[in-house]
Amino acid sequence: DVKVTQSSRYLVKRTGEKVFLECVQDMDHENMFWYRQDPGLGLRLIYFSYDVKMKEKGDIPEGYSVSREKKERFSLILESASTNQTSMYLCASSSEGQVGWYTEAFFGQGTRLTVV
Amino acid sequence: AQSVTQLGSHVSVSEGALVLLRCNYSSSVPPYLFWYVQYPNQGLQLLLKYTSAATLVKGINGFEAEFKKSETSFHLTKPSAHMSDAAEYFCAVSDRKGTGGFKTIFGAGTRLFVKA
């Protein structure tokens, strides 16, 4: 089974702290994603990466950065946490598939971050 | 840009009744379409996907979806609801980036309630 593991299920941080959310996948997938999930808004893409050291901004990158130094690990960084970043964060990975067509994303369990 | 609209943030059905969750997409190219399910406090799990091989797609747990290009729809159905189907369901469309890689656009989600 494909496994995507997020380092924490629940996290409480203070305003202004630097926060690291870690995600590891064990299926040698090329693509990795960070989403933010809020009620009524669905999943919104923060950043994604299609290769080591490569990253692209998603729809809501402001206030976030990412790091992908190894293929299996994709980190989301909140440079200075704010209360409006309280949310559920979901990491996902996917393979490029055969002949470059898309395969589905596999998700981690999520990290519920509360910024106080 | 591609987008996904899910009609109805909440749907309630009786156990044994038909489940119909609606999804419309916008895309300028043939899309890859997906339905995911999220059970409480878990990540998302793939139900089914459309990749142009067949317009009627069967997924797990008795769900299926029909791709209708003329209506730009990909509605999810199940003939007979079970209590265990209570969850949040997300429709999604993929979008290949010109620089490489894919990103997935998610709808806002539909929460399904099943009454005994």
Question: What does this protein structure show overall?
Answer:
The complex is a heterodimer of chains A (116) and B (116). Chain A has no helices and 11 strands. Chain A is mostly beta strands and 116 residues long. Chain A is globular and about 40 Å long. The model of chain A has no long low-confidence stretch (mean pLDDT 90). Chain B is an all-beta fold. Chain B has strands spanning 3-7, 10-14, 19-26, 33-38, 44-50, 56-58, 64-68, 73-78, 87-96, 102-106, 110-115. In chain B, a hairpin with a 5-residue loop joins β4 (33-38) and β5 (44-50). Chain B is globular, with a radius of gyration of 14 Å. The interface between A and B is medium-sized, with 30 and 28 residues.
Order of helices and strands of chain B: EEEEEEEEEEE
In helices, the fraction of residues of chain B equals under 10%
Beta-strand share of residues of chain B: over 45%
Helix count, DSSP H or I runs of 4 or more residues of chain B: 0
How widely separated are the two ends of chain A?
36 Å
What would the keywords be for this entry?
heterodimer; A: 116 residues; mainly beta; seven-stranded mixed β-sheet; four-stranded antiparallel β-sheet; 0% helix; 52% strand; globular; B: 116 residues; six-stranded mixed β-sheet; five-stranded antiparallel β-sheet; 11 strands
